[in-house]
Structures are given as C-alpha cells and as structure tokens.
Fold AbgT family transporter.
Amino acid sequence: MSAKIKKEGWILKALDKVEKIGNGLPHPTTMFIIFTILLILLSWLAEKNGLKVSYEVYDPITKHLTLKETAAVSLLSKNSIRFMYTSIITNFTNFIALGTVFTIIMGVGVADGSGFMSAVLKKIVAITPKRAVTATVIFLGIMSNVASSTGYVMLVPLGAILFMSFGRHPIAGMAATFAGVSGGWSANLLIGTNDPVFAGMSTEAARMIDPSYTVLPTGNWYFMIASTFLITFIGTIVTEKIIEPRLGTYIPDEKIQVNDISKDEKRGMKFALISLVVFFIVVGCLILPTNGILRNPQTGELLRSPFMSGIVFLMSLFFMIPGIFYGIGAGSIKSDKDIIDLMTKSITNLSGFMVLVFFAAQFVVFFNYSNLGIILSVKGAEFLKNTGFVGIPLIIVFIIMTAIINIFIAVDSAKWAIMAPIFVPMFMRIGFSPELTQAAYRVGDSCTNVIAPLMPFFPLIVAFAQKYDKKSGVGTLISLMIPYSIAFLIGWIILLIIWYLFAIPLGIGGTLIYTI
C-alpha cells in the first residue's frame, strides 16, 4: 500500500470518528436546548466575574466610529428572564433562514412537483460531461452569493438531485454545493451586496489613521475573481478524492430516469421557456431604465435597492412561474388547486426543520443578548495584538483567528463592524492596506461557515442530508464539511501570500501596502 493511500485512509478514519462522536450526541434539536441551558449558566458566571470589553465600532447610521463598552449580560437576571420569556415567538418568526426558506421552497415545490425540475435535470444530464458536474455545482454555488442567501435553499438540494441523476451519491452533491455557497461566500466573479457594506466599514476604520482614505467596493474584486476558480478547484478535489470515497455507493429507493424528455415534457418545456422570457422582460423593465421602479429611488443604483431587498421573492417566482406553465403544457397541472397542493406539500416537508429552527433561533438570540460573542471577538483581537507577529505570519494568524470567531458569530457584517475599527488601523500602522486587511478577514470568515452550527442555514442543510440518510445529524454534516473547511483555509492563505509576495493589486483601487 502506498503512502498516499495510507494517508487517505487515516483521513477517512478521522472523519468517521468525528461523525461517530457527533452523531452519538443527542438530536440536533436537543443539542440546542442543552446549549441554551449551558449558555445561561455561562452568561451568569461571566457577569458575576465582571467580564467586559471596550472597543470602537462603526455606526452605519451616523457613519462614524464610536467608543463602546460591552459587558456580559447574565441570562438569569430579572430583565433577561423577562426578555427570554417575551421574545420566544419573535425569535422564531424573525429567524433569518425561516422566511427565506419558506418563500423559495414554495416556488421550488411547484417547479419540482409539476415535473419541470425533472425535465431540466434530464437535459442537464444530457449535455453536461460527467467529469464537470462537481466543478459546475460548486461554481454555481459561489456565484449564487450575488443573490444573497438563496443558494442555500435553491442550489444545495439541486446539487444532491443532480449528483443522483449521474448515479453519484446525492449527499456528496449536497456537500459540494454547500461548500460553494457557504465556504466560497467571499469569492465571486461579480460585485455583490456585501462589498459596499464591507467597504463602508473599512473606510471609516481607515480614517482613524488617514481621514482622506476611501476603500472602494471593488477593492478586493481581482482577488475574489481568482478565489472563485481556486475554491472551485479545491472543492472539486475534496469532493471526488475524500467525500465520495468515504460515502460509498448510494442505492436510491427509486432509480432516477435520465432518458430524453417525452413529447408532453417537450411541450411543457416550451411553455416554461416562453413564460421565463416574459418574466425576464418584465423584470428588465423594472430594473434596466435609470428610473426603474425597483432601483434605488434616491441614487438609481441596483446593489442597494428594492430589487436586491426583494431578491428572495424574485427567485421564488423564477421557479414558480415556469413550473406552473410547464405543468399546464405537460398536463401535470390542471387547475389552481394543483398549484396550491404542490406549495402545501413542499411546506409540509419542512416540519422537522421548523422544530429544529424554533430552538436554534432561541439559542442564537440569547447568545447575542448575552454579549458573549462580542466579548469573544474583542478578546481575540487583543490576543492577536499581543502575539508579536509581523508580516505574513501576522496575516495568517489573523485569518485563523477570524475563522475561529466565525464559528461563534455567523453574521459576517456584524463581526466586521466590531473588528474593522480594531484591525484596520492596527495593520495600517505596520504597512498593511485596509483592502488587504479586509481580504484577509473575508478569507477567514468564509472558510468555517460550513462547520458553524450557529450559521442560520446550518439546520436546513442537516435536514437536506436526512432526506437521503435518516441517521444523518450534526456530526455527519460537520465531518463531511471539515475537509472543505481545512482545504479552503490552507488554499486561500497560500493564494493571499502569493498575492502579497508578488504585489498583485487586490482589486480596482485595492493596494496591498499602506505608507503612513
């Protein structure tokens, strides 16, 4: 046996151990209940010992930096108990993943139930080379980030179905797509909604040192483009060399038919195509004119506009409309009752996810209320300051620290609002540009998304996995995604080091070095 095979065997055994330990834990719902109880006790201890931090934070309303002091809040205090008791319902209904999932899943449910998705997949199977499937789903996952979080709901289950259509393990397809959507969150060929947000925060932090400094939304664009291809390549290797061999052969309950579409299906596809053309024309009329209804009424831009704010509903229509017209053309939809039944069925399948989200939402809100997440990030920053590292080692430590913090604080912009005023000025003083600091932060912030149970869509991905393996749990998903997380972290760090050593611009207006 070669050393390579032995090494792979050791990796697979380690992942099996992680899965066994993880799935040996209670049900994910029960785990969130236990975590909440532990959080309550931990917050009480933190407040009792006077745990607090002081830091500067960017205020998006005033657009200035303000000094804040944050202390740990005991969840056993009278006010906290009142808060927990009165917020339980809103914690659930306001959970970010809930509305997104419900809205998109209705559209996807119609497209799937009418047979439209099956027909599309047959065509994809017919024209896509088998060797390109993995790279395709990862790449599409990365690109879906332009449309905010829709990739989690829309693409992850489709990746599983597509893999199964090729006779491959659906959970491998799910993992690969999830790796692209979540692990590749900071990679893209396009400028997305997060870029102006990050740039604004970085600008305010940079002006603590240089009042005239401005970070452009395009400041990391070149690096993001290169990262897109890097993450696609790494994700493909991990999927085909580690994930699929470990999962083995999948035997579906019903064999997926990949024959060419029938006469009725072709008629349905024509109806669907016509409806999509009309759909795009209508959307184009709403966003293409400079005074388009869905553009920002003040600035006329698209990135921060009603169009982007309502993109989730638009994506639902993107599936629902062709699904309805396909069903009419193919004969699978004969009345409005059929459409409503398909929507109802799609929501019914989310019952387990809803129970899990109810308790997960409580933990996330209570964790934020306790201020322990903020304290963790500020303490981590203080630790980094005290390490004494400079140059490339400092960048590497910063990325790793961000990756660790990301497991506990899932919202990227919230973390950067806290961390930018600390690290951007600190790094500027030693010659690192704000754009470089921002790029390093985004690398660390993306890599551990796929193994962060507090990430809002993590419970949904667990539910997707359970569709193909009833025994799947948090341990299964984490063990599946750890190879992606580690590989992305290593590969991305190497890319950033190369970028730094060869002094390649990070983007339009994105330099590497800052000279005081």
